[in-house]
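Good morning N.,

You mentioned wanting to compare the apo and holo forms, so I went ahead and generated the holo version with zinc ion. This is what I fed in:
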Amino acid sequence: MNEIRLSVSMPLDSEGFLRRRCQSCSREFKWLHTPDGSANAVAPPPGGYYCPYCGIQSHEWMTDAQSALVNETVQREAVQIAQRQLNQAMKDAVRGSKFLSYKESPGKPMPEPHPLSEDDDMKRIDFQCHPTEPIKIEESWSGSLYCLICSAEITV
Ligand SMILES: [Zn+2]
Ligand SMILES: [Zn+2]
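and this is what came out, ligand included:
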């Protein structure tokens, strides 16, 4: 089985923040990606980043819309691979036959998944302990917040 790499681009807001969702408390926030849009400036601690709201560590931060986009992209690619394999198998099957021929069917390409968009919502919070890892949180949030990297607690 060959490894297939897919890239799914996730939109950042105008300041380079990516929307995230905590699986534990279901709240959404945003973290800052590096200028090339690939990752946070600081790598996650072994247990994963800490949720700023509930302080629980995780490696899985996709929002529902982001997971749906990934699933759609994977399915679309799987259909295309299956179609290519079918075409090849049919061509192999009829090769050398005087009586059979196979006209390759391009298949119906599945529509491109809808790209996501990202609004400039939420309020920005900077942490003194990790100044390169600001976050954006729900406008209405007040109370404790935890640093993504070290879970230091601040109050907003
Ligand atoms: Zn949480
Ligand atoms: Zn910190």
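The radius of gyration is 22 Å.

Happy to go through it together on a call whenever suits you.

Best,
F.
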